[in-house]
Amino acid sequence: MCLGIPGRVLEIREDAGLRMATVDFGGVRREACLAYTPDASVGTYVIVHVGFAITEVDEPEAERTLDVLRAMAGAVEAEIGEPLPGPPM
């Protein structure tokens, strides 16, 4: 199964001519390419699929999706390499 996971852009930089970002997936941080989301900025929520941010979403939608994905822990772990932490307190 391939999933698009919502995350918040924490940092943006240029790497070999590509816009790259550090993205936070509810506590798990990974690198993602922003080539398909040129308007994304720090604080923007994006859907990331196989290392590429493919679209922007608003924060409430990102949080709803993360809650569903937490309930599907095995699928998320297979996609990003580790389980999502629980919701923030």
> Kindly, what is the distance between the CA atoms of the first and last residues, rounded to a whole number of angstroms?
30 Å
* Strand proportion: 35-45%
Q: N-to-C SSE series?
A: EEEEEHH
**Residue windows where pLDDT falls under 50 for at least 5 positions:** none
Mean pLDDT: 87
Shape: globular
Main beta sheet strand tally, sense and closure? 5 strands, antiparallel
What proportion of the residues is helical, as a percent range? 10-25%
**Number of helical runs?**
2
Classify the secondary structure makeup into a structural class: alpha+beta
Strand order of the largest sheet: 3-2-1-4-5
- Rg over CA atoms, rounded to whole Å, is 12 Å
Please count the beta strands (DSSP E, at least 2 residues each).
5
Describe the structure.
The chain is an alpha+beta fold and 89 residues long. Helix content is 24%, strand content 40%. The chain is built from two helices and five strands, in the order βββββαα. It has helices at residues 59-71, 73-80, and strands spanning 5-15, 18-25, 28-33, 45-49, 52-57. It has a five-stranded antiparallel sheet. The longest helix has 13 residues, at 59-71. The radius of gyration is 12 Å and the shape is globular.
